[in-house]
Amino acid sequence: MTTAAEGTAMDDPRQSTATLEVRGLAKTYGTGAEAHEIFAGIDLTVAPREIVCIVGPSGVGKTTLLRCIGGLLAPTAGEVLVEGQRLRGPVPQIGIVFQDYSRSLLPWMRTVDNVAFPLESKGMKKSERIPRAEAALEAVGLAGSGSRYPWQLSGGMQQRAAIARAIAYEAEILLMDEPFASVDAQTRADLEDLALDLRQRLGVTLVLVTHDIDEAVYLSDRVVVLSGRPASVVDVVDIHLGDDRDQLTTKSLPEFTEDRARVLRQIRRP
Amino acid sequence: MRSTRSFLLAFLEQAWLPVLLVVIWWFASEGNTNPFFPPLSKIWDSFVTEMSSGQMELHLWASTRNILIGLAVGVVVGVVGGTVIGLSRRLRAVLNPYLQFFRTLPQVAIIPIIIGAFGITAVPKIWAIGFACIWPVLLNTVDGIRAIDPGVRDMVDAYRITTWRSIFRVVLPGALPQIMAGIRISLSVAVVLMVVSEIYAATEGVGYFIHITTGLFQTDKTWMGTLLVGLMGYLLSVIFLLIEKRALRWYHESAS
Questions:
Q1: Sheet holding A51-55, edge to edge
Q2: Residue B175's closest chain A neighbor by CA?
Q3: What is the pTM of this model?
Q4: B245 — contact with chain A (CB < 8 Å)?
Q5: B154 closest CB neighbour out of A98, A151, A165
Q6: Is the Cβ of B174 closer than 8 Å to some Cβ of chain A?
Q7: Which residues of chain A are under the pLDDT cut of 50?
Q8: CA of B6, closest CA in chain A: separation in Å?
Q9: Please, which of A224, B82, B145, B245 could form a disulfide with B138 given CB 3.0 to 4.6 Å?
Q10: Which of B152, B173, B254 sits opposite A149 (nearest CB)?
Q11: What is the largest CA-CA distance in chain A?
């Protein structure tokens, strides 16, 4: 398969080497009697090239956890380590893909400029930025759409552009917060396959937050189940569905059904 | 070809009513002897004579210059000040009462003070216009920056966008629709300030022309000056709309 991943700007597939470690992470809003503990004692290690999905009932604090892992929010206790380095804010190894793509893409910039924009702050010249952004767009299946504005693209295409931005940024770890929640079912399936494909081709690590258990099982090497108040990790389910997955056959495997049932039981556990 | 034709049609659609009104006015006022409501034909005659004397051009130029420089000063100070205040929660809390005061203060009220203190030349008038133009731009810049989606801020943080880059490429473009709306308000404020400051004390300008012709009881010329001020304000706002349409193309097109 000849794709942009093997082309100019992305000659060597990323092959993430960054390990992500979360140790005793806790977040509390407010103090004293008003204190509201969101989650506590979260431990998690994500190996390079792994896909981990964090699932849990809505309102459990999945997004808050992901924001802490991404360095957007300071935890109350514990630490996040990327390549052994303690996180004090966003780092270049991590790219975040937000749920609301329509807000995270800037409407006054063309799609290719949106994708290339973070590279400016890395001090990269325009002659390097644009080809890299074009290559990233091609890698997510948006070749030729770069000159259009984000609002001229469909929802699924906008989310692809947001993913392209994280890829052009050379993030080794992609954090995704409900990335496919606001697109239709068919687009959602396509984007799930894109996520698998990017791991395969570029060797990126993916940490996704989702409320969709089918999606979590289909994508993951491991599913982390978050539950309780304050939330903690109640189960980590290893998924053994192999590297080659597809929407039809994988989802009808007995293993898929078993894993899905196990995750569901953990979430529903009182 | 087709676009010129549709443009012409759109123009005719807009133009027929004003043309009709002017025609009605022309014939209805003909032969009117009330000195306060001179016939339109007389107003037109005085326009032709004044324009050919070369004096009127100087008045128009002086007024336009004062508006444009004053507006430019107001926009620059307003955008810079508004950006600083919009980005700082603490500054907003401290300055809010003062900003509300200037928002509600009728800006023409400062004209006697400024002209009294600095004289009747053009520069104090430009200061007065500039000062008045600051507030709509400043307040709209603050509002525009505050209205930027928190998701945009997250993106800026997550991708480690540098401060200056985030101000010029994210914050200001994001607030631009509101800033433009503020400039539009300031433009009409500037026209008001121009006329009042020139009527109050001046040696040139359209407002000054209106003032002296009233004193000389040349009502046809007063009418002409007043119509010119209206026309000037209209032309300036048309030019501004064209600029705005260009600058905010993404905004108008993404909304439709």
A1: A94-97, A173-177, A205-209, A51-55, A222-227, A232-238
A2: A108
A3: 0.85
A4: no
A5: A98
A6: yes
A7: 1-9, 11-12
A8: 26
A9: B82
A10: B254
A11: 60
Q: Which residues of B touch A118 (CB under 8 A)?
A: 159-161
Terminal Cα-to-Cα distance of chain B (whole angstroms): 26
Helix (H) or strand (E) holding A235: strand A232-238
DSSP A87: P
Nearest CB to A121 within list B162, B251, B253: B162
User: Looking at the domain assignment, is residue A32 inside a domain?
Assistant: no
Return the amino acid letter for B176: L
Range of the domain at A188: 4-12+49-73+88-268
A208 domain residue, yes or no: yes
pLDDT tens digits, B171-204: 999 999 999 999 999 999 999 999 999 998 888 9
Domains of chain B, start order: 61-255 (1.10.3720.10)
* Residue B206 · residue B125 · CB < 8 Å: no
Let me know: does A182 contact A211? Beta carbons within 8 Å: no
Task: Kindly state the tokens that stand for A115.
Answer: 């994708």
Rg (CA), chain A: 18
Backbone angles phi, psi at A107, to 5 degrees: -70, -15
pLDDT for A269: 67
Domain of residue A183, CATH code: 3.40.50.300
Whether residue A225 lies inside any domain: the answer is yes
